[in-house]
Amino acid sequence: MPERVVDGLPRAFAELAAELDERDPLAGHRAEFVLPDGVVAYLDGNSLGRPLTVTRDRLTAFVDGEWGERLIRAWDERWMDRPTVVGDLIGRAVLGAAPGQTVVGDSTTVLLYKLVRAAVDARPGRSEIIADTENFPTDRFVLARVAAETGRTVRWIEPDPGTGVQPAEVAELLSDRTALVLLSHVAYKSAYIADLPAITAAARDAGALVLWDLSHSAGVVEVGLDAAGVDLAVGCGYKFLNGGPGAPAFGYVAERLHAEFVQPITGWMGSADPFAMGPDYVPARGIRRFLSGTPPILGMIPVEDMLALIERAGLPAIREKSVLLTEYAVAVADEVLAPLGVVVASPREPRRRGAHVTLEHEAMRSAVEELWRRGIIPDFRPARGLRIGLSPLSTSFAELATALAHLRQILAARVR
Ligand SMILES: *Cc1c(COP(=O)(O)O)cnc(C)c1O
After folding, report:
1. What pLDDT digit, counting tens, does each position of 120-131 carry?
2. 208 neighbors 174 (Cβ within 8 angstroms)
3. pTM of the full structure
4. List of domains in the chain
5. Is the beta carbon of 238 within 6 A of some atom in ligand 1?
6. Which residue, among 251, 270, 284, has the nearest Cα to 101 in the 3D structure?
7. How many angstroms separate the alpha carbon of residue 211 from the centre of ligand 1?
C-alpha cells in the first residue's frame, strides 16, 4: 500500500515532494518514457536508463524501412556516417564539444582501452600513469593491463571514498614522467564531481594527457570538454543517455591530437577507405580513425532519441532538477533515516555531487532485496551502499518519496 507508506514520511516531506513536482518545469517529460505499472519507483537510471516510447516506434520503423527495405544500400545512404553524426550530437547536447571530435561505437571498456593505449603510445618518453583506486573496475582493470603491456607504472591515488580525487592529490604525483591521468568525472559510488577544469589544466601544464570517464556525468552534469581543454574522454550510452542494454559508448579526442594518435585496434572501418580493400592500414582522417569494426547502428537509435529530448529540455534545467532531487534524498536521509543508522556517503555540497546519492547501512543488502520485491528498484553497491540514481527526465519527486518511505519502513521494522 504505497499511499500509506508515503504518509509514513513526515507530512512535511510528503507535501514537499508534491510541491516540487508541481513546480517542476520538466515534469511533463516523464510521460515520454515507458512506465509499466509493476514498477513503483525506478532509482537506477544511472545504471540503465528507461526507454522512451518514441524509441519503440523508431525501432519498428528501422526494421521495416532502413534495414528491411533499404538493406545494404543503407550503408551508403545513411549508416557510414552515423558514428560521427551521433558523436557530434552527443558533443553538442551534453559534452560541450565542437563537431569532429566525438565518435560512437564499441563498449566503454573497449573505447577506454583504445584511448588509453593510444595516449600512452603518444607519450613514449613518459613512464607513469596516474589513476585512483576508487574508480570503476573496468577503468582500473584496463589501465593495469595497458601499463603491463607497455611497461608503464600506475601511480594510484587512494582518495577519500566519501568524496573523491582532489586536485592536490593529482598535483602531488604529476611530473615530467607522467604520460596520462585517467579519472572519472563523477565517481560511480559517491557521486563526487571531480574538479575537471583544475585537474585538466594541471595535467596539461605537466605535459601529460588527461582522459575523463564521463559515464556518470554524460546527460546529467554539464561537462564543457572544449572549454576546459580536455584531451580525451569516454562515456557510457546506456546510463543517462538511455541507449538501452549494451548501447554503444562514445569517445572524445580533441582535434589537436588526431594526427599524432594511432589507436591499437586498426580495423577496416577506421581506415581511410574501407571499401578499397587495400593491402595496408591507413588511418582515416579525423575522429573516424578511432573506429575499428562495423559500428552498432541499431544501438544508436535510442541514444539519438534521448539526445533529442535532452536538447529540448536543456542540460542546465536537467542539472537544476537533478540537484533538487539529490537534495531531497539527502534531507530525508538526514531527518528520517539517520535515526535508523543510515549514513549519507555522498558529498553534501550540491556543486560537488552528481546525480546519485549513496546511503549506507549495515543491513542495506537485505533492505535492497526487499525494495526490489516491492517494485522499488535502486542499486546495491557493496559492502553496504544503496545507490539512488536520479535520472531527472524520468523521475518524479513523488516516486523518490515513495521509495524513501518504503526504505524507512523496512529499516524501522528491523530495529523493532
Ligand atoms: C558504467 C561504467 C562503465 C561501463 O563500461 P561498459 O564497457 O559499458 O560495461 C565504465 N566506466 C565507468 C566509470 C562506468 O560507470
Report:
1. 999 999 999 999
2. yes
3. 0.97
4. 11-53+314-414 (3.90.1150.10), 78-310 (3.40.640.10)
5. no
6. 251
7. 14
